[in-house]
Amino acid sequence: MDKRCELFIKLIEKEKYYDAHEVLEEVWFPNRKDKNPDILLLKAFINASVSFELIKRGKEAQARKVWGNYQKYIVYINKCSSENIGNFKKIKTVLESNYAKLLS
Q: Would you list the DSSP string of 22-90?
């Protein structure tokens, strides 16, 4: 998972939001019905990258709705596994910083 998280961050920073989404989708999709906090956080991160892609395409209203999904699931950050907490907190910081920049 470490390598996926690192790649996700790199792709977000390079504004390759769709590609970032795909990196986590490969793990999330087969487990999407699982209510495990780690899986729910992957859903949050995927939604954030989709929101960024929508902003990039000039669809701010839809982006804000999708960002709402990110906010719905990011609350699981304090319930995720100890092996992923460091990576997930880094991703959260990068995403929230970028969201603020994209909308300014």
A: HHHHHHHGGGTT---HHHHHHHHHHHHHHHHHHHHTT-HHHHHHHHHHHHHHHGGGGGS-TTTHHHHHH
The closest of 33, 23, 31, 47 to 95, measured between CA atoms, is: 47
Q: What is the pLDDT of residues 41-53, one digit of tens each?
A: 999 999 999 999 9
Q: Buried b / exposed e across 36-71, counting CB within 10 Å, b at 16+?
A: ebbbbbbbbbbbbbbbbbbbeeeeeeebeebbebbe
pTM of the model: 0.95
